[in-house]
């Protein structure tokens, strides 16, 4: 695995003069941040050795070298999901490569269903913790101590320092940022009313089909993480309606400018 990671990292390093310090994973309908990147090089996933290929509508499937506010970054426009048939190690492989390239901070974004009755569709939630309901973990199997410890600490999966800075940015820009717990599930079905209710009882504020595996692997390698969700549909009893992937994309796109503003400013402070 180390050889595979190194091969991919070496290839990417050879493709650009940019030396990224922050990795960004853009979720469903959230590719607009790319417009804020001064792009130096864009590479299709299909061209990258050992990379999976994104198969989901709304995920462009390219890796972008560039800068945001003069900070060198590497952005994934489109991620890989467990429900696409990839195993956990494939889903999280790009994060391993990022670390090997010298990136120590990971930003992740996603579209999610709201569970907290105080949330409305279009709200933005800064993730302060997560619950893994995938029934799997990317660290299962033989551990390589060169990547991280056998039993990594998860007492601070999302950087409290970055969360505090993000909340300050929101306040300064009159963006009403929520804070909450994200529960990650396999998908690809949206949740049933009973499942929404169960996740809320467990303590979750939003539910989605990504993010948790990437953050687990990032923390395994001692990367600091920042996560942000756009609430694209409601799982609150009495507010649950039929939802489609297209509607999720539309809501994400409408709320994206505020999320983009937060990330753009936070990159300079990370």
Fold and architecture overview:
The chain is α/β, with parallel strands linked by helices and 270 residues long. It has a single domain (2-269), classed as 3-Layer(aba) Sandwich (Rossmann fold), CATH 3.40.50. It is 31% helix and 25% strand. It contains 6 helices and 9 strands, in the order H-E-E-E-E-H-E-E-H-E-H-E-H-E-H. The chain has helices at residues 2-15, 88-100, 160-172, 193-202, 212-220, 245-269; strands spanning 22-26, 38-44, 62-68, 71-77, 105-114, 124-132, 177-184, 206-208, 224-234. Strands 5-8-7-6-9 form a 5-stranded mixed β-barrel, surrounded by 4 helices. A hairpin with a 2-residue loop joins strand 3 (62-68) and strand 4. Helix 1 (2-15) packs across helix 2. The chain is globular. The mean pLDDT is 93.
Compact overview of the structure:
The chain has helices at residues 2-15, 88-100, 160-172, 193-202, 212-220, 245-269; strands at 22-26, 38-44, 62-68, 71-77, 105-114, 124-132, 177-184, 206-208, 224-234. By secondary structure, the protein is of the alpha/beta class. It has a single domain (2-269), classed as Rossmann fold, CATH 3.40.50.1580.
Reconstruct the topology from this structure.
Elements: H1 2-15, E1 22-26, E2 38-44, E3 62-68, E4 71-77, H2 88-100, E5 105-114, E6 124-132, H3 160-172, E7 177-184, H4 193-202, E8 206-208, H5 212-220, E9 224-234, H6 245-269
Helix pairs in contact: 1-2, 2-5, 3-6
CATH superfamily: Nucleoside phosphorylase domain
Q: Termini distance?
A: 29 Å
CATH topology: Rossmann fold
Structural class: alpha/beta
Radius of gyration: 17 Å
**SSE topology string:** HEEEEHEEHEHEHEH
Largest sheet: 5 strands, mixed, barrel
Quickly count the helices: 6
Strand content: 15-25%
Q: Approximately how much helix is present in the residues?
A: 25-40%
Overall geometric form: globular
What is the level 1 CATH name? Answer: Alpha Beta
Level-2 CATH architecture: 3-Layer(aba) Sandwich
Which regions are unreliable across 5 or more consecutive residues at pLDDT < 50?
none
According to DSSP, the number of beta strands is: 9
The spatial strand order of the largest sheet comes to 5-8-7-6-9
Number of domains: 1
Average pLDDT figure = 93
